[in-house]
Specification:
- With 63 residues, the protein is mostly helical.
- It has 4 helices and no strands.
Amino acid sequence: MARKYKRLRYEDRRTIEKMLKAGDSVVMIAGALGVHRDTIYKELNRSGTDQHTYTADVAQATL
């Protein structure tokens, strides 16, 4: 079951980065983290990156 209103931690961002580089879909990543797919899309937009350029370090630095 998905967690409500979960803030992403650095470890979550590392998972996002790793799964994106492996070619996993946003839906698969959201399922692995237990969040809604919109959370992943918002994370990509917030960090100013896309599915091909996302890195956990850059995303963490934009907080």
